[in-house]
Amino acid sequence: MASWNSLGLEITYEAFGWIAFFSWSFSFYPQVILNYKRKSVVGLNFDFLVLNMTKHSSYLVYNAAMFFSPVIKRQYHEKYGFGEMIPVAANDVAFSVHAVALTAFTLFQVLIYERGNQKVSKTCIGITVIVWLYAVVCVFLAWPNHSWLWLISVFNTIQVIMTAIKYIPQAFMNFQRKSTVGWSIGNILLDLLGGMLNFGQMGVQSIDQETLVNFYGNFGKTLLSLEVVLFDILFIFQHYVLYPVKNED
């Protein structure tokens, strides 16, 4: 079983991971608070929320299974080498649990607050149904041969795809409205910090182990960090350059 070569890098890895956890976790609260203060969710795209729930649920399945299952850990080591470290940390699991809970709460706010004429699109519903049907089929395919590592990699792929497309409805809505009112920039700034630290955490592990296996062994985490950074930069540009808000808390 692999271990750390440098105590300093191990401490840095843990620090990056938990700061990223708190940053990403706190990123949910500005939107929740904004909804509460306005008693309205107008300006928050509902497709984003539904796709986000699918994304975080899939990521929770992957992180929890990889972190807690001895069988999956063994299959991972058999594929990538017994000298390699598991690419999921405790902060990854903690974040996923928190993310699912807060996204569910935000969806609850959609039900109780003013939402104007906004609704979930048929396209979003269709994508969500197809994704979960595909996941169920993969469960039955993995069951006979106990291909659990392959199965959770499917969920990891789902979360990567959901991350890539979940921001598009919100970005397009901001473009259509020529405004970011109702969409919390605090969410984006904290999300960006978490994405950068998450990527940095993987880099620290690679330096210590002198290998890039943790990048392609957990490609979902790698792509997640890159996607988050790119989309957050787009939202920051929309908020501060294209559609600046003069009066905002």
Automatic annotation (TrEMBL):
<dbReference type="GO" id="GO:0015184">
    <property type="term" value="F:L-cystine transmembrane transporter activity"/>
</dbReference>
<protein>
    <recommendedName>
        <fullName>Cystinosin homolog</fullName>
    </recommendedName>
</protein>
<keyword id="KW-0813">Transport</keyword>
<dbReference type="GO" id="GO:0005765">
    <property type="term" value="C:lysosomal membrane"/>
</dbReference>
<keyword id="KW-1133">Transmembrane helix</keyword>
<feature type="transmembrane region" description="Helical">
    <location>
        <begin position="93"/>
        <end position="112"/>
    </location>
</feature>
<feature type="transmembrane region" description="Helical">
    <location>
        <begin position="180"/>
        <end position="202"/>
    </location>
</feature>
<keyword id="KW-0472">Membrane</keyword>
<feature type="transmembrane region" description="Helical">
    <location>
        <begin position="222"/>
        <end position="243"/>
    </location>
</feature>
<feature type="transmembrane region" description="Helical">
    <location>
        <begin position="15"/>
        <end position="36"/>
    </location>
</feature>
<feature type="transmembrane region" description="Helical">
    <location>
        <begin position="57"/>
        <end position="73"/>
    </location>
</feature>
<keyword id="KW-0812">Transmembrane</keyword>
<feature type="transmembrane region" description="Helical">
    <location>
        <begin position="124"/>
        <end position="143"/>
    </location>
</feature>
<feature type="transmembrane region" description="Helical">
    <location>
        <begin position="149"/>
        <end position="168"/>
    </location>
</feature>
<dbReference type="InterPro" id="IPR005282">
    <property type="entry name" value="LC_transporter"/>
</dbReference>
<dbReference type="Pfam" id="PF04193">
    <property type="entry name" value="PQ-loop"/>
</dbReference>
<keyword id="KW-0677">Repeat</keyword>
<keyword id="KW-0458">Lysosome</keyword>
<dbReference type="InterPro" id="IPR006603">
    <property type="entry name" value="PQ-loop_rpt"/>
</dbReference>
